[in-house]
């Protein structure tokens, strides 16, 4: 126990060490944005890319000349990033010569900041730290107060004048940034699906990925399960710039009106963007698109645990299941009525859409797989 509860009075008396910890921890929140800003700066400068293409750790002078940066300022940026364990600093031991420079080396985390590659998360960082995605956060408390009226615009709309999807339609550059960010997540999530439960695709000869973005998920699924014909379905402005790939057809449309027919409908990171009634409408359209006997809907979404806050059990570091709670906050800031759902909330939405039989499977990702059957 980090604190004492007096038996008779039930007064919570924090212990000294908890108060000391709090005096330090408060700075995580005061300066919370600094880590994001410096990581964005590291991506824009191309620090990880320079070390990777150098092929071995680099001194400050090598790095500053490769990046065309002022060495003193870069030294301060690197000192911060090393302190946050994004890069490593290698000091040569047993070298008496104080002139011998220390070297900056890559870590598993800094490799995720490489601007390209299968595992890169750089675009996602750049998207979340872009002005249109950051501005809505200033409207979070106002949203929490007004959500009850349901007519109040989302923080994203207040900040940017349009909802996220209309904003993307009007700003092709932001749309590309958003779709490529979702593709960063799609790559890691589809890898986890294929590793953890590839059997969900057994016996399926066609899949429609509803709200499939630029088609990254379907491209990976069709590559791993070549017997499947894929239909990547999204808004017309999204599919019109999606990459062509073998076995995947791009179809533009509105999922509230129509979903192309296939053996299975796949929805990843889509239903959480919408409120219950909207999810029920989308799921009903999916139900019409799949065969009544052997069809299914495969959803890739968070299943939030209501009681995940037992501090005694929690690790200091962020855990995968905590990311779902972050994403739930993103849903308040960026969508009209989107939310991450608990098991009970999923059961309600599925039942209202006519799916009485479903199962949920955990994978090594922030998401779970929900398979729902029309019969
Ligand atoms: C959060 S993204 C998920 C993208 C993709 N499934 C993934 O996980 O990488 C939600 C997607 O839904 C699409 N979307 C939004 N409204 C839609 C609509 N009415 N009809 C079809 N797609 C829509 C967006 O364009 C976007 O690509
Ligand atoms: C696997 O890890 C992740 C998967 C998806 C996301 C994610 C989904 C979204 O729908 C979404 C969004 O709509 C949004 O506006 C945003 O800023 C981020 C975002 O992320 C994250 C992690």
UniProtKB/TrEMBL annotation:
Domain O-methyltransferase C-terminal: 137-356
Keywords in alphabetical order: Methyltransferase, S-adenosyl-L-methionine, Transferase
Domain of life: Eukaryota
InterPro entries documented for this protein: COMT-like (IPR016461), COMT_C (IPR001077), COMT_dimerisation (IPR012967), SAM-dependent_MTases_sf (IPR029063), WH-like_DNA-bd_sf (IPR036388), WH_DNA-bd_sf (IPR036390)
Active site, UniProt feature: 272 (proton acceptor)
A GO molecular-function descriptor: O-methyltransferase activity
Xref: Gene3D superfamilies: Vaccinia Virus protein VP39, Winged helix-like DNA-binding domain superfamily/Winged helix DNA-binding domain
Every O-methyltransferase dimerisation domain range: 28-116
Biological processes annotated in GO: methylation
Family: Belongs to the class I-like SAM-binding methyltransferase superfamily. Cation-independent O-methyltransferase family.
UniProt protein name: Uncharacterized protein
Source organism (scientific name): Cannabis sativa (Hemp)
